[in-house]
Amino acid sequence: MPLNRQYIIGVDGGGTRTRAVIGTKNGEVLAFVEGAGTNMKSTPPDVVRQEILKILAQLLQKAGLTKSDVSMIFLCVAGGDRYVDIARWEKWVDTIFSGTTCKVKITNDAVAALTSGTFTQEGLVVIAGTGSIVYAVEKNHHVSRVGGWGHLLGDEGSGYYIGQEALRAIAQQYDVLGSNGDVFADTILEQLAISDPTEIITLIYEHPQPRVCIASIARTVLRLAEQNNERAKDIIEKAVIYLVQLIQTMLKKEPQVSNFPIVICGGLFGNLYFVQCFQEKLQQATIHNRLILPEVPPVIGAFINGLFCEGIQMTEALQRTIKETWMSINEK
Question: Which residue of 159, 282, 283, 307 is surrounded by the most CB atoms within 10 Å?
Answer without folding.
Answer: 159
